[in-house]
Write a structure and sequence with these properties.
mainly alpha, 434 Repressor (Amino-terminal Domain), two-stranded antiparallel sheet, 2 strands, 56% helix, globular, DNA binding, Cro/C1-type_HTH
Length: 79
């Protein structure tokens, strides 16, 4: 089984990829989340445990629905 740290790293990396694909800066996303830029950075760099509600809010802001299966763009569906 994959360790929690490795899963956090994967999640953070995927969230960063999604944000960048949307052309959104970390500053812009953090403002829309009403969170500090540092908090978003810690999430993307796996320095904090992800909060499910916060991850869902990020996905809503990025207009991501459906399933995400890595860097293959055919697997995710923007709203």
């Amino acid at each position: 089984m994959t360790s929690p740290f490795v899963r956090r790293r994967r999640l953070g990396a995927e969230l960063r990829v999604l944000r960048e694909k949307r052309g959104m800066t970390a500053d812009e996303l953090s403002r829309r989340l009403c969170r500090s830029r540092a908090k978003l950075s810690k999430l993307e760099n796996a320095h904090v445990r992800p909060d499910l509600a916060e991850v869902m809010k990020i996905l809503d802001i990025l207009e991501i629905t459906g399933r995400w299966c890595g860097h293959d763009e055919r697997c995710w569906t923007p709203a």
